Amino acid sequence: MQPRPHVLLVEDDDDVRLTTSLVLEAHGFTVSAVEDGQSALGLISRTVPDVAVVDVAMPGMDGIRLTRLIRAGFGFPIVLLTARDLPSDVIAGLDAGADDYVTKPFDGEVLAARLRAVVRGRSGADVREHRLATEAFGDVVVDRAAHVVTALGDVVALSATEFRLLEYLLDNAGHVVSRTQILQAVWGEADWIDERVVDTNVARLRAKLATDAIKTIRGFGYKLVAG
């Protein structure tokens, strides 16, 4: 029997925290629920979860800052909960290192499905044994086995989604891949995710790696030029 995925839920509203915990537990997750960012960081220092669900609008340390702090040291997926669904708000969360976002009020089953998708995507990346362990393009070196990426010799902190995106582009180096293909490969069968998420993640990946090897094919998608 597979172990139940461990979710860290960070939500300052008592009712939402309790309700969400119960829903996720009913859908096969183990939940550790805390009410603020400091408590979340303390828990992570003791036990690293499989995925985190983080409310954006929390007093003190908000969800965006917490996401940045987590992402600086850990690669597990992060899903943001937000009452704001403007593109600028979504982009801010993704730029901070989040892998997905859910707008309040949300359906518990949808949240559970999204968490399964990001956890499944991370697990899939871990077991692709046929791939080369280490690959390089330009000044970027990717160690697939260790999930470590360096650029000009410095380690680059990538989210789980960014790492899967980089792997997919590497697997298709020299070939043009569409946004739809990238969505399906990196996010899975997730009809609710807009293709703009691909553009945001590619832009963030380019900036982190400081590379122009990821080319935009206007009106279609992207191509990694590894040579």
From TrEMBL:
Signal peptide as annotated in the record: none
Alphabetical list of Gene3D superfamilies matching this protein: 3.40.50.2300, 6.10.250.690, Winged helix-like DNA-binding domain superfamily/Winged helix DNA-binding domain
Domain Response regulatory: from-to ranges: 6-119
Keywords: DNA-binding, Phosphoprotein, Transcription, Transcription regulation, Two-component regulatory system
Modified residues (4-aspartylphosphate): 55
GO CC annotation: cytosol; protein-DNA complex
Annotated DNA-binding residue span(s): 132-226
GO biological process: regulation of DNA-templated transcription
Domain OmpR/PhoB-type, chain residue ranges per copy: 132-226
GO MF term (any one): transcription cis-regulatory region binding
Protein name: Transcriptional regulatory protein CseB
Native organism: Nocardioides baekrokdamisoli
Lineage, broadest ranks: Bacteria, Bacillati, Actinomycetota, Actinomycetes, Propionibacteriales
Gene: cseB
